[in-house]
């Protein structure tokens, strides 16, 4: 045997009992180990498919990560296996790679312009375990220094405005709570600053560095803001109107007294559906809602170092739009017309005169642009490769809405979905369909660049539907809470309603429908197969939950209470009974569709045991299952070679079990 192929074994599972009512004989399992990959029952990938996929798998994007001295910027992009830090010093200039790790960088935080520091902090884990360690990269010496303990989970790095102080979140104290730590950046000893239990994040230092805005996160619908005195550690929690609300961005105003923040707190006692941008000055009592006329969520905010501008984005039905206000007047600033898509990773230049943004759309991967605020000039700084493909052939999705089982104000509730339809479909041809379900569950599917959707449409003639079922963010507080706790399966019913909608579309083949999803979306795949195996031909479950009870018991300890706030507490008998009723593991006999399960061995969120137990259970009922396990990945796949193999295996799976006639 070759070193790569350490084993290729054919093993028969234990024969089922022949007594009446026994499970059918288990199917044989072909197991292959290649490096860090374990594959079971996955056929050899045809070279022609690998060649056909190659260009789609060599698309890449670039995202803005911060400004450095001398007018340069940091970006994150991938040229080899993983996304690393690069520096670009002029529009369309050379991308100078700075880090060269086998693991991707999780975060990049540039030192502030007002400091004497020239470099950035980055986070990196091992094999996707998400126990990130923070490191300092000095741009002058190119030396790297470990800032954290090498063991705990560290995230959310934040400099004070002068660069003298540095804060971050860490589980170093007890492994369960995410505390806030702080140190003098130039050689200071790290110390805990907030240790009140739960998950805390540093948000912004005051201009003088003496106070730190902080946030305690409980769930997507509940968080609590406060401020802590950095020297004494005295914590002051701010009152929350209505007692419970969600907060996002939180920044000191340039005067260091007032604050800007994003929240869905009630206004004048009236409940709010969406997150709005707000201003509050505790000294004068002045309060202002700056986006009251926008019936959508505000996603993010940034304030320039010179205190003259504030930038924020709104999420309008999955399209992120950019806005800039002049400070302190709050008058809108004219901006150039931007392409329709997503605007994220916003950052002002050190002099405050330019604004960098990352732009992405369904037909263009992420790239960095810079807006000159004085003359509304838009300049492209990066142009990422699309694998030699013709971008004009990329398919842009349309937004559709389909009715579901319940009503709102006497009318059927509708669910939004993005519909990728292959172009130039011959008359009379019915298209196979893949339903792609997001994770979270509080996430939101967005019309971002998706090379897999493009390959399905342009090469395999498969349509993709990307729904935002109830429980998704971006559509208001009520919609977000429609799948909580005992209402969990209502989101699965939305998939049933989508199957009904597909049956009414003349161009779609209701007999050839597949489901695909990761994390909570993986649960949705399994639950959809559990309920609708007679209507779904095949499903791909990536790092999915197969039983909520075992998931909550085995997820990393720092995550348990956070997930219980969303799913319910498995230690409560009534909730445990709900989990037993709705979990696919307990109803594996109802999964009769073809199934492909993919998992990372180091996943701290959804342990690999969730995958292995559903694979075993479905196979125990005589159903063949493809199974893929990577020992160097965690919650999803981030290394290019791993992603490439998984994508190729998925396309082969669709070819054999969705597109073709065989079931």
From TrEMBL:
Residues 448-658 form the Peptidase S9 prolyl oligopeptidase catalytic domain. Residues 1-22 form the signal peptide. PANTHER family: DIPEPTIDYL PEPTIDASE FAMILY MEMBER 6, SERINE PEPTIDASE S9 FAMILY MEMBER. It comes from the Bacteria. It comes from Lysobacter niastensis. This is S9 family peptidase. Keywords: Hydrolase, Protease, Serine protease, Signal. It holds the Pfam family Peptidase_S9. The keyword Signal applies.
């Amino acid at each position: 045997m070759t070193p790569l192929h350490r084993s290729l074994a054919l093993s028969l599972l234990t024969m089922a009992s022949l007594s009446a009512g026994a499970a059918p004989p288990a199917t044989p399992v072909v197991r292959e180990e290649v490096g860090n990959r374990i594959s079971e029952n996955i056929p050899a990938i045809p070279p022609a498919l690998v060649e056909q996929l190659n260009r789609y798998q060599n698309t890449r994007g670039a995202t803005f990560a911060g400004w450095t001295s001398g007018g340069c910027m940091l970006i994150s992009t991938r040229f080899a296996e993983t996304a690393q830090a690069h520096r670009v010093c002029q529009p369309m200039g050379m991308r100078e790679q700075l880090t060269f790790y086998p693991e991707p960088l999780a975060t990049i935080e540039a030192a502030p312009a007002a400091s004497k520091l020239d470099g950035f902090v980055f986070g990196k884990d091992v094999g996707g375990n998400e126990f990130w360690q923070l490191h300092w990269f000095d741009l002058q010496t190119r030396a790297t220094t470990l800032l954290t303990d090498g063991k705990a989970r560290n995230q959310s790095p934040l400099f004070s405005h002068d660069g003298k102080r540095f804060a971050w979140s860490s589980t170093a104290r007890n492994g369960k709570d995410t505390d806030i730590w702080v140190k003098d950046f130039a050689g200071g000893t790290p110390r805990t600053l907030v240790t009140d239990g739960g998950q805390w994040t540093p948000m912004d230092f005051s201009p003088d560095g003496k106070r730190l805005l902080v946030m305690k996160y409980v769930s997507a619908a509940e968080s609590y803001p406060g401020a802590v005195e950095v020297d004494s550690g005295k914590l002051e929690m701010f009152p929350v109107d209505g007692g419970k609300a969600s907060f996002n961005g939180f920044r000191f105003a340039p005067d260091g007294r007032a604050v800007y923040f994003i929240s869905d707190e009630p206004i004048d006692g009236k409940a709010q559906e969406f997150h709005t941008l707000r201003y509050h000055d505790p000294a004068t009592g002045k309060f202002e809602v700056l986006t009251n006329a926008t019936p959508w969520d505000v996603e993010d905010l940034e304030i320039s170092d010179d205190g003259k501008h504030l930038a924020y984005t709104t999420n309008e039905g999955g399209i992120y739009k950019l806005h800039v206000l002049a400070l302190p007047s709050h008058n809108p600033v004219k901006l150039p017309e931007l392409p329709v898509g997503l605007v994220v990773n916003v950052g002002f230049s050190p002099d405050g005169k330019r604004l960098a943004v990352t732009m992405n759309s369904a037909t263009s991967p992420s790239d960095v642009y810079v807006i000159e605020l004085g003359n509304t000039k838009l300049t492209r700084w990066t142009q990422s490769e699309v694998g030699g493909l013709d971008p004009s052939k990329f398919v842009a999705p349309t937004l559709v809405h389909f009715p579901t089982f319940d009503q709102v104000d006497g009318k059927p509730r509708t669910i939004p979905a993005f519909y990728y339809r292959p172009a130039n479909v011959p008359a009379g041809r019915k298209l196979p369909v893949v339903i792609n379900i997001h994770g979270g569950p509080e996430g939101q599917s967005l019309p971002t660049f998706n090379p897999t959707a493009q390959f399905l449409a342009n090469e395999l003639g498969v349509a993709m539907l990307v729904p935002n079922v109830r429980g998704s963010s971006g559509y208001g507080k009520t919609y977000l809470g429609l799948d909580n706790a005992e209402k969990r399966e209502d989101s699965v019913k939305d998939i049933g309603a989508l199957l009904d909608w597909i049956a009414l579309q003349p161009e779609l083949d209701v007999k050839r429908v597949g489901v695909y999803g990761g994390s909570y979306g993986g649960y949705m795949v399994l639950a959809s197969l559990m309920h609708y195996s007679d209507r779904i031909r095949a499903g791909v479950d990536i790092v999915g939950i197969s039983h909520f009870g075992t998931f909550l018991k085995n997820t990393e300890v720092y995550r348990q209470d956070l997930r219980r706030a969303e799913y319910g507490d498995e230690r409560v008998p009534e909730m445990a009974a709900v989990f037993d009723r709705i979990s696919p593991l307990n109803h594996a006999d109802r999964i009769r569709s073809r199934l492909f399960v993919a998992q990372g061995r180091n996943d701290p969120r959804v342990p690999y045991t969730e995958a292995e137990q559903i694979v075993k259970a479905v196979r125990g009922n005589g159903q063949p299952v493809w199974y893929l396990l990577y020992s160097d990945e965690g919650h999803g796949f981030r290394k290019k070679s791993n992603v490439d193999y998984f994508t190729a295996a998925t396309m082969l799976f669709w070819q054999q079990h969705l597109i073709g006639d065989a079931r």
